[in-house]
Amino acid sequence: MVRTTADGDVRVLTFDRPERRNALDREALEDLETAVADATEPVVYLRGAGAAFCAGADLDVVRGLDGDDAADFAALGQRVTTAIERYDGAVVAGVDGAARGGGVELALACDLRVATPEATFAETGVKLGLFGAWGGTARLPRVVGEGEALDLALSGRTIDAETALRMGLVSRVVEDPRSVANELAAVDTRALRTLKDRIRDDADRRTKEERERSAFARLVDRAEW
């Protein structure tokens, strides 16, 4: 369900279940976890096959879960999004078409979310008496702020690409999101992991500045001018 292709310095991971709008079951999540773990390229690019990015968790699977199984399924999704977030390089979500629920959560775990003009986003779980449990309740307010996060999560409303851009949910709206992945692969990729660590460091300011100096010194020491 997750197709993997290598293209130079970009590893492309495709949710390949278009007849179900790329909804993910346990097998697909495990495939994605393995694909991320096996990737060695400086840039990973996530995309969906067909007319959607990802519809999130397969509801046919969710309906068949009891409490313990549901917790295990959520834990698997959290493990996958953490692996994406901690990837040793840059991860770009190319959202073309619908991103719903867990699909939004997977995109939130990426370093950049790049949308086409046709992209739409919604946290629809609340309409089913549920919510996204793949780390979205932590990442969404971090990305868009608490007010926007509550609006999206509590209403379940659908927003278009331009609205997502204005609130900071996506970084850019372009015709070809893959071009952004190629752009990142063209820079000095040795700095990508360091930049991720520094920007996401939640230590106090003095500690962050000390770590920043040390990281900069290491990069300079290893630079090939």
TrEMBL record:
GO terms for molecular function: catalytic activity. It comes from the Archaea. Coiled coil: none annotated. CDD domains: crotonase-like. Belongs to the enoyl-CoA hydratase/isomerase family. This is Enoyl-CoA hydratase/isomerase family protein. It comes from Haloarcula limicola.
